[in-house]
């Protein structure tokens, strides 16, 4: 084989190998960045899951209807069909 052709092939091989190595390093850095992003998102999901569970527990909690009725009466509300009168005299 001609020494010039052989030299060109060696240079081309070194260039291709260098590009492959640079690409591998770049991809590894991207993988590390994506793993860090994934960890952040998983932590946010965990936090939101805890919040959602707490809210579901509040929504599913037993409601003491007597307490709700007493609070409503204190605020001036009545039950369905009940007439509520307001005293407008000075007394």
Q: Low-confidence spans: pLDDT under 50, at least 5 residues?
A: none
- Order of SSEs, N→C? HH
Rg, Cα atoms, Å: 37 Å
Major sheet size, sense and barrel closure: none
Q: Can you count the beta strands?
A: 0
What value does the average pLDDT take?
89
Distance between the termini: 119 Å
Gross geometry: rod-shaped
Q: Structural class per helix/strand content? A: mainly alpha
Number of helices: 2
Explain what this protein looks like in three dimensions.
- Helix content is 74%, strand content 0%.
- The chain has one domain.
- The mean pLDDT is 89.
- The longest helix has 57 residues, at 3-59.
- It has two helices and no strands.
- With 91 residues, the chain is an all-alpha fold.
Write a short abstract of this structure.
By secondary structure, this protein is mainly α. It has helices spanning 3-59, 65-74. It contains 2 helices and no strands.
């Amino acid at each position: 084989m001609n020494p010039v052709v052989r030299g060109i092939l060696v240079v081309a091989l070194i260039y291709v190998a260098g590009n492959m190595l640079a690409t591998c390093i770049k991809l590894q850095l991207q993988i590390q960045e994506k793993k860090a992003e994934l960890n952040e998102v998983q932590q946010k999901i965990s936090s939101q899951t805890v919040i959602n569970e707490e809210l579901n527990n509040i929504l599913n909690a037993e409601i003491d209807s007597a307490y709700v009725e007493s609070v409503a009466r204190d605020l001036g509300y009545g039950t369905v069909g009940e007439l509520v009168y307001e005293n407008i005299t000075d007394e």
